[in-house]
Design brief:
Layout: H1 15-20, H2 34-61, H3 65-88, H4 92-112, H5 125-135
Helix pairs in contact: 2-3, 3-4
Length: 137
């Protein structure tokens, strides 16, 4: 069963799995305190939520340094799409705040994300889903 979707992609997840995947934006330690949860909600999750779940998928899937850099780059591009979504919805104030947060959050993830990225053989979809489920227990 470990080879199930050996070359795992985000699109292999159902919509329900995508919605429930990962720990949202921010580091896992943030979920362990009220202050951390407040920070996650007010700084990131109000507009980066989908981008963060997809980024978590890439970090759990893992690979080499090039894979990490590619994952981080795609994350930044997705965050800019989230900013554009805010613009299209007329949420100009939030769009401006998000525009400032994108480069800061990208830099923080690029530098601080090394311990969270799985360096090694890329995990299969089955392994990714098992790892995600364990992290939520």
């Amino acid at each position: 069963m470990g080879n199930f979707y050996k070359n795992a992609r985000w699109k292999h997840l159902s919509v329900e799995q995508q919605r429930a995947f990962g720990n949202g934006c921010g580091a896992a330690w943030m979920d362990k305190s009220a202050a951390g949860r407040w920070l996650k909600h007010h700084l990131f999750n109000w507009f980066f939520e989908a981008s963060c779940a997809h980024h978590d998928f890439g970090y759990i899937k893992g690979g080499n340094l090039r894979d990490k850099l590619d994952c981080d780059w795609k994350f930044m591009r997705a965050m800019w799409r989230d900013v554009d979504r805010l613009r299209r919805r007329g949420r100009i104030g939030k769009m401006l705040v998000a525009s400032v947060l994108v480069p800061l959050f990208y830099a923080a993830v690029s530098v601080g994300g090394f311990p969270s990225f799985h360096f090694g053989r890329k995990r299969s979809l089955c392994e990714i889903l098992e790892f995600d489920a364990k992290g939520k227990r």
